[in-house]
Amino acid sequence: MHTSSLQQNILAELDHELANTRKVLERVPYDKADYTPHPKSMPLGKLAAHVVNLLAFKTLFVQADSRDFLDPNAPKPGPTPTSREELLARFDQYSQTLRQALQESYDEQLTHNFQLRRGEQVLMERPRGAALRIMGLNHSIHHRGQLSVYLRLLDIPVPGLYGPSADEPGGF
To answer: How many CB atoms lie within 10 A of CB 10?
Structure first.
């Protein structure tokens, strides 16, 4: 009987979502980086950078016990990329770091709690594997979905993520 570990399941899901995310990021038009579909929306370039920077955040879920948003010494993302090439280079680098951290992890480690704080206020406390899925993968998928709407509104073909999109043969 074949058994699959928590780490293997998360890694398989991560690989699938990273491939889909890269498809969307490859279409981000940096000549329209300031585009916002609504006054409350994040500009396109900043949203794309956020999707990429979340990968570094996910790595913390695997490697650390906690993250305090008020800690001035906590790791911060680099400057906002100014081109698609910079964006994709950072995506590839952060993806590899996250994959490596996950490959070096083990199931028991992924069941230990991770705590997200703002000073003394606990914003979230979950097992690392759950934090990675909920605040990591799901959070990224949410923002990737926003990016795909921006692409649609800019009349840029949207890639198929879970099957063909309306812009691909057989899509709907």
So the answer is: 22
Residue pair 21/91 in contact (Cβ under 8 Å)? The answer is yes
The string of pLDDT tens digits covering residues 113-146 is 999 999 999 999 999 999 888 888 899 999 999 9
Grouping H, G, I as helix, E, B as strand and the rest as coil, residue 60 is helix
Domains of the chain with bracketed CATH? 6-153 (1.20.120.450)
Report the distance separating Cα 59 and Cα 144, nearest Å: 18
Closest CA to 166 of 153, 152, 154: 152
Whether the full predicted model's pTM is greater than 0.70, yes or no, is yes
What are the backbone dihedrals phi and psi of residue 99, each rounded to the nearest 5 degrees, phi first? -60, -45
Rounded distance, CA 155 to CA 92, Å?
26
